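Posting for a labmate who doesn't have an account.
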Amino acid sequence: MTAIQFDKYIDIMANVNLKMQTSDKLFERVISSSVQNELEALEFIDFMQGSLPFTVDYGLFINGDQSVYSNTGKYKASVYAQYIVSIDERIFIDTMQNVHKPMFLPFSQLSDRIVFAMPIRTGSSSVIKKVSVYVISPNSLIASMEQILTDRYKLAAIFDADNNIIFNDKNCPFDFNSITETNILFDLSGRDKLSYLAYSSYSSQGYRIVLYHEKSSYMLNTENIQVSVRAMTIANIIICISMIILAVMLNYKSFRSVIDKIRGYAQSDAQTQNKNELQYILSAFNGQMEENEKLKTQLVDQHALMLDHILEDLLNGKNVSQQSIAQIRFDMPYIYVINMQLQDLQDTTNLIDRSREKFYAIEMYADGLFTIVFSVSDFTAITKDKAIRKIKEIINQPNICLGCSSVYTEPSKLFLAYLEAIRNLEKNRAMTDGSCAIMAECSLPDEETQSTAKLTYAMKTGDSYAIEHANALFDQITNGDNSPPLQRYMCYQIIELYRNICRNLGINLDMMRISLTLQNSDVSLVREDFMSILREICDMQNKRQSEALEITYSKVLQFINQKYTDPMFCINDIADNFGISIYATSRMLKSILGINFRKYLNDMRIEHAKKLLLTTTHSINEIAEMSGFTSSSYFISIFKSTEKVTPNKFRSSN
C-alpha cells in the first residue's frame, strides 16, 4: 500500500507538470521565454500548489536568469535554495541546469526538505529551460505514508531506481542499508537493543520502500490471546473439578445418612464437620465463578475496544485487514449508521452504556458529528424508523435531528453508509419545519484572510499574537452557553486551525501529545495543555527567527563590503541579490545599520578614500572613482561635508 501511495504522489506531481507544459493559456505567461505578467504567473503557480497537499512549496525554475517562481513569490535561485529548499545553492543550481528526467535531489539529514525536480520541455527543443521543483516536508511524507499502514509499521527509508537514498528516518534504530532483498521479512537488532521486523518492496515506478516495526508489539496481540485462552482453560478445569468434588460430597453425605439411619445412631460431630467442609467447597466454588465472570467481562471490554478502533478506521475510509473485516461481519451481521450534530447533543452518558443494545458511539470531530454504529441481528424486526426511535429514547431527546443510513451487511462499505447518513441528516435538517430542534450554528467565526495571514506570520516568527489569539478563541468557548460535546468540538476547531498553519509552515507538531490533550473532558485542561504546547512552539520559532536574521544580517553586511566601491551599487542590488522587495530591504538596513543607507554607504566610501589619499599617489579623480563615487565634484562635496576639509588639504596636512 505504501508503494502505491508513493507512486500516486509521483503521478500527481507529473500531472501538475503536464498541465504547466500543455496549457495554452499558460504557455505565453509562464512557459515561454518571456514572462509577460509575473503576478498572473505567481497566482497560477499558487493555484497549482493547492493540488499538492503533501508539498510545502512548489516552484518553477527559469534556467535563463536563474530565478524561481514559487507559490510564495519570486526568488533568486540561490536564495530559494538556501531559505526555502535548505540545501547548498551550488548543488541546487547545478542540478536544475542538468536535469533531463524526473529525479529526487540527494537527501541530507542536515536539510529538513525532500526535493523532486521534473523538467518541462517546450516544443521540440532538447534544451531544458524550465524545471518544476516540488519541496516536500519529511514530516508530511511520514504522516501521509504511515496513515495507510497497518500493524504499527513505520517508514524507514525510500530509494530510487539507482539505489540512491531519497529519504531516510534519522530515528530508525537499525542500518536499513542491510535490507537488500524485497518481499522478505527481516529480523534485525536495533541500536536500542530491541528486536525489529523490517520489510522492503518495490513500487511500480522502481522506488524501493523499507518499512519496520518493533517485534514485541507485533507479538503482543498473539501473547494476549494465548494468555486469555490459558486463563479460560484453567478456569474451566477448576470449575469441573469443583463440580465433581461437590457431587461426590453430596452423594457421600446422602449415602452416609442412610447408613446412619440403618445403624440407628448419629454422629453429630462428624455431621458438623461435613457441613463445614461443604460450606467451604461452596464458598470456593462461588469465588471461582466470580473470578470467571470478571475475566469474561475484561475480555468483552477488550473486544469492544478493538471493535471501536476498527469501526473508527472504517468510518474514516481507511483500509483495515481482512481479519478485522471478518470480525466485524461476525459480530455485526446487519448495520445501521446514525449521525447527529454534536451541537444538538445534550448528554452522551446514556450512549456509552452498551447493556441495552449492541451499538458503538464515536465522536467524529472532523465533521462535527456524533456517529452511532447500530448492530441488529434481524433487520426485518428493527427497521430504520425503529432504530431512530430507539436512539432518541436512549438519549432522551425526542426532537433531535438524526440521519440514518440503509441497512448494510458488508463492513467494508461502512464509509458509504456514513456518507449516506450525512446526506440524510442534511436533508432532514433542511426539510424540518420546527419538529426538529435545530440550534444555531455555534462554532468559531471564519477567519478573515488578513487575520489568518497575521496569525500565520505570528506562528512563523514566534510572535506573542499567536498565543493571544488562541486565548481569545478559548474565551469564546468558556464564556458561551455551550453543551460539553459542543465545547469539545470547538476545542478541536481551534487546535485544527493551528495544526493546519503549522503543517503549511513545516513546523513539527506532536500529534500524540495533541491527541492526549483532546481526550480531556474539561475544557480548562485542554486549554492549559494546548497553550503550553503553543508557547513551546513560539519560543522555538522565535529562536529560529533570531538565528536566521543574524545570518541574513551578516550576509547583507558582507555583500555591502564587497560592492560599496562600485559606483553603480545601490539598494536595488541588495534587494535583487536577496530576493526581497526594496521596501523590505530599506527597513532591514535601517534595523541593521541604525542610520540611512545612503549615509552609511557614503561614510564607507569616504573612509576608503582617506586610506587611498594617505597611502597612494593617485589623483583626486582616480580616488573618487576607486571609492565608488560617480564624479570627483560629488566626492569633494561629500568629503568636505564629512571631514570639514577638502581631499587635497587632508592629504597635505597628514
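Reply:
Got it, the C-alpha cells are right above this. The first helix runs from residue 2 to 22.
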